[in-house]
Amino acid sequence: MNNSALLTRSLAAVWHPCTQMKHHAAPADALPMIPIARGQGVWLYDFDGRRYLDGISSWWVNLFGHCNPRINAALRAQLDELEHVILAGCTHQPVVELSERLSALTDGALGHCFYASDGASATEIALKMSFHFWRNHGRPEKQDFLCLSGSYHGETIGALAVTDVAIFKDAYAPLIRPAHLVPTPDARLAKDGEAAIDVARRAAVALERHLEQHHRHTAALIVEPLVQCASGMAMYDPEYLRLARRLCDRYDVHLICDEIAVGCGRTGTFFAHRQAAIRPDFLCLSKGISGGYLPLSIVMTTDEVYAAFYDDATSRGFLHSHSYTGNALACRAALATLDIFADDQIIEANRRLAEHLASSLQPFAAHPRVRHLRQRGMIAAFDVLSDDPDFSRRFYREALAREILLRPIGNTVYFMPPYVIGKDECEWLVAGAAAALDAALRQ
Predict the structure, then answer these.
(1) Which of 72, 285, 288, 346 is an S-S bond match for 264, by CB 3.0 to 4.6 Å?
(2) Quick one: which of 285, 289, 331, 280 has its CA closest to 110?
(3) Is the CATH number of domain 72-343 3.40.640.10?
């Protein structure tokens, strides 16, 4: 097999996600598609032997490098024991151990885990659980949801209701029951003389005004803690989460923390919401929880929520399922991932790595076309001043030419590398991005 052969077959048979297929097929100026043969650590290799540094952890999932030997070994062992079993009426050791260990990471505050296969499904589950909780409590009028402007929580119909990214949502608007929007605490919105915490407080005031009027019909507020990823890595101060938690408590509204992208150590703590010293009513996890190996998502919740469904009547139970709920292999990959966090003291190591990343990125702060260089843990980003509607594709192409996989979100260039990236590789990544930026802007 070589690159061109596999690429021809892929373009003929595979409909790729979040992709205008014509961009990859137009002969004059086709957007490169990379045929990947294998991965090792932070590197991906094509069939012709060319390598690419995976600067985005393959859509934010790969925490500890491709073909990680410890996760590989755990999966091989699990294959000889159990690959999958129906989780309705059955249970198994990996799903029990994973649930217990995740609960312990919340100090027992979120002691009940419900499983699915992807992030959007976790969002759907949290929304349905909140809605059903209020119905079981005799308050069926509480069925509206709140989300932040610029929010992203997935692309299934229910998840799109609490997503505010037009390119994903507009085409399907007739199918969606929209949620209510409240202002984002995005620190880039700071006025002259304001700090990020001022923007957070201003956004919380707007949230309070909405809840004052509409709390009787509001089931939950859903947020991406600290970083709104898909809308351009919008970062905000933890003060917003603290104030939102108080308001949700005051007005009897659930708080859903969507940590699908920002959990598992990405922001500097294992759970992002911990930086605000709060506890959500629902916590959504996916992406990195299995180390980037297998589809897995989890919704964690409280004793109070669980108790609302505990009843003799089947109709009062949470009637939601996925065929691969709690898949044994995926749970074993997640357990191996948690082992690496514990054994290698990853959170502390990531703090040092994040400092090196920040230092490497400093030259961008002086770039005349760069604005809002920002970082939260192992997520870094900057915005590019460009009127070129094709900037993101030009940058992507130029980065690939320098053996780097980076996919800008519009005019936002971001970095979310695997945690196993070394200092030399980090500097390679940043230097290649700088060269790609200048080349894209020249075009």
Answers:
(1) 288
(2) 280
(3) yes
